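Long-time lurker, finally posting.

We've been working with Exonuclease domain-containing protein (Meyerozyma guilliermondii) and I want a structural starting point before designing mutants. I don't trust myself to interpret raw outputs, so I'm hoping someone here can both generate the structure tokens and explain anything notable. Sequence follows.
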Amino acid sequence: MTSEPMKKKPKPHKKKAQKAALGNQYVPKTNIGKRMSANGIRTILISLLNDSNSPPSWASSWHKPTDPRAIVCIVPGIESGIKYKVNNDKTDIPIEEVDLGLFSSLSSLQGLNWLFQLRSPAQRDSLYSLTEAMLSIRMTRKEKNDRLEESKKAQLTPDNCLLTIDQMKFREYPMPNCDGYFTTKDLGTPKKIFGLDCEFCNAGSEKVLTRICLIKEDGSVILDQLVKPSEEITDYKTEYSGITREMLENVTTTLGQIQATLLATISSHDILVGHSLDSDLRVLKISHSRIIDTSILYEHAQGPPRRPQLQWLAQKYLNREIQNSSLGHYPEEDAKASVDLMKLKLQNGPLFGMVSEEIPLVERLKVSASYTDKLASTAPPGFEFCPVTSDEEATKTCLEQVKNKKLVVLTLRDAESENKISVANSIQLLVEQAPPETAIIIVSPTTNEQNAHIWASKKKQALKTRQIWTPEDQQQLQEAVMDAREGYFLFGFKP
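Top reply, 14 upvotes:
Generated this for you. Predicted structure of Exonuclease domain-containing protein:
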């Protein structure tokens, strides 16, 4: 008796995704099953602003506006104003389960159906800039070749080389008007460029200033001075600093005198050039917002986030040997190398000395874009910079810019100082007054970055001062970085 072959059970038909009604909306898929990264936000912008009509992978249907434009509003520090239960299974969070609190105006956005958990970019023990990750994209081979040719023709200016506010924050530069620091003021003098380098010794676990050199753009020396710290030096670090006990015996110049000299010489609109000046300015207790840092202007052979050493840069690009004396470093030599590296960059274009494979997103999309942030002195590459002095002014500027720009990025800072009502009012104004069909993306990085930066600074200090860095310390740092990666973003269209 032959048995009949078993019939395969018919597979259940997958429900076809319900198409969205015509108009500017999307229908998100349920159960994404993973957090979104900065790439997810970038995908939204690409889907909106390029010629393709395809939706992001997490949307089942998409109908773009006839004249697409987008506002990306970065708001550090508002998560305490929105209450939701974090999903342990890492799925997306239905917006109806979220108490938007002060930010209830967001619920009026068409298509704002989901709150996405956001993972900021990081390695095991270091954070990257979320803004940089969102607004850059890997180059194609053609783009790389085209950029190399164009770079040789580009007219690069010192202003093009300034650090952005995000670069300064992520590299722990003293921010303007922060507690315990002097901030440079407008001296009413013509704009100038200075080179700066300092040498330090250790007083316990702290660095102290023992020598400083300030030079003009032409290399002439303005200041080259030994400094006697008020603290007792415990390690002269002579092999690096070049400083010995005997050199400082009869020195009477103090840190306060050096600060007074610098503040009377460097105007807020002048440019300071140096290598990893974050360390110098922290020890000097001075903040300055116009910085060219050659450790960022040029890239490490293995690419970011590693920073190249000044000695290697001088040898490779200037054919110059520095820092090779057994008597330690000479700050004049280092300051001149930094200024000369800046000049070489200006002569050879923005891609000179870079190994990065990424380009500004707006360059790929070929769209007009603007950027505003009350703490910034420059914009990410490809963006028009709109200087403002307050979140209120930033919001009004954004609403003006979005009328004739395809992409506007603004950062609201008041929540960082616990002024969440001000931020809520700014967001409400954006939602109410943005042009119809404008895509609005609200991005909230975590407020826990500070703890990660504190632990990163502890590790950096321990390694530099040859203190013990325990496995427990490393675990604390990694946990702080992982915690700092958590944030969220919301997305919708103005009806």
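Before you design anything, note these points.
Residues 1-33, 84-90 have pLDDT under 50 and may be disordered.
The chain is about 30% helix and 20% strand.
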